[in-house]
Amino acid sequence: MLHNSLFLIAHFHNTIIGGVVFGVLAGIAYWYPKAFGYRLDPFWGKMSFWFWFVGFYFAFMPLYVLGLMGITRRLSQFEDTSLQIWFIVAAFGAFLIALGIASFIIQLIVSYIRRDQLRDVTGDPYGGRTLEWSTSSPPPAYNFAFTPVVHEIDAWAHMKKHNAERPVDGFIPIHMPKNTGTGVIISAISVVLGFALVWHIWWLAIVSLVAIIAVSIAHTFNYNRDYYIPVSDVTEVEAERTKLLATQA
């Protein structure tokens, strides 16, 4: 009964937006200060949330009703004009979602302009429980000066509870990988390969496959792929962070 109906549209958007997009937006808001060193503006964040949340239900709940009434998708006109009110409500919801998207973009712009006031100097603006919040925001290239010793699931919360002290000496050179474009190159060629397979362009598919194999083999001969951060650099970075945390205590 529901095949090809607006119920399908409502269900699809309910799972993708409610289950994926909302999670992505939450992740961006949560980890933004860790990645960029300053928090997102809270006012525009709340505006974006409420527009998205309310608009989401206004936009797609009417489509469930229409689908149960047997209305199919991809139709531009209906003989029963009493159905129009449901589409008006859905359009209003889409308008609210557009305001939510606009609020999020404004939030990014305003946050960048006010980044000095929103600066995360502690590395732990939310009183976090996991290890990423034990580093500075953004974290140094090596993340941790020592390999963290974990005793609980929420390792950082456990460390704070037991007043774990920051190390001030005993650092060693930290082994780091160098950047490489091999992954991006292989991904780009894979897109071409996928396109060729979909459209049965066999010569392009063969060339792309050979190119992927060739780039992969060539990368195995790249022996200049790592380096060490010297102890002096690690000591300087850690001392600066210890000093900064002391001024915030």
Description:
Helix 1 (6-36) packs antiparallel against helix 2, helix 2 (42-68) packs antiparallel against helix 3 (84-113) and helix 5 packs antiparallel against helix 6. The protein folds into three domains: 6-113, no CATH class; 131-173 and 232-248, no CATH class; 182-219, no CATH class. It has 249 residues and is mainly alpha-helical. The model has no long low-confidence stretch (mean pLDDT 93). It has helices at 6-36, 42-68, 84-113, 155-161, 182-198, 202-219, 231-248, and strands at 174-177, 226-229. The protein is built from seven helices and two strands; from the N terminus they run ααααβααβα. A two-stranded antiparallel sheet has the order 1-2. The chain is flat and about 80 Å long.
